[in-house]
Amino acid sequence: MHEAKEAPRVSVFDYIVIGGGTTGIPIATTLSSNYSVLLLERGGSPYNDPNITNVNNFGLFFFDTSPDSPAQQFTAEGVPNARARVLGGGTSINGGFYSRGEEKFNMEAKLMDKDLIQDSYEWIEKVMVFEQVVKDWQSTLRAGLVEAGVTPDNGFTYDHLIGTKLSGTIFDENGTRHTAADLLQYANPEGLSIFLHATVHKILFKHKGTYKSFKR
Fold first, then answer.
1. What are phi and psi of 138, to 5 degrees?
2. What mean pLDDT is predicted for residues 91-106?
């Protein structure tokens, strides 16, 4: 990872991925096995910020309103909210709950290769998903949901099921957060370059010998 201000004036890549979040990172990582890839992220690294990595500090970044905050404040329809501005995207600032998608989504998205879907889930789960350490409030809530009729009780499972269940978390047993940035360990280091604090202002498309620009 490098700061964008250290980038050479001219570089050539097979692919440029804009946004180092939960979509951009897997795409860039996968492409790097066969192509040269540049990944641009407008925020910084999650690894140097204990407010991100340590579960005991969860939420403190929401009070950071500086330009370098990993959580950018915004208001939509009068409701204050925050969006991620850090490598790893939402997995760097969210509550850390993990569950696989429902079958209905796969059908609507026309994702028909069940083996590939399963392999993709496991690809993620190997490096950033853990079984929860169940504490009193969690077991109490679980029992309350079952008593209220949110059944069946499915126990522990990553699968999307009707009823009550215990699912995964991206915080490990030591309370350390694991984000989508951890998926970069799968990348080909010779094929992937990452620039942080990089903002894209214009994209040029070449079409039949002429250039067309797209401004953000």
1. -70, -45
2. 94
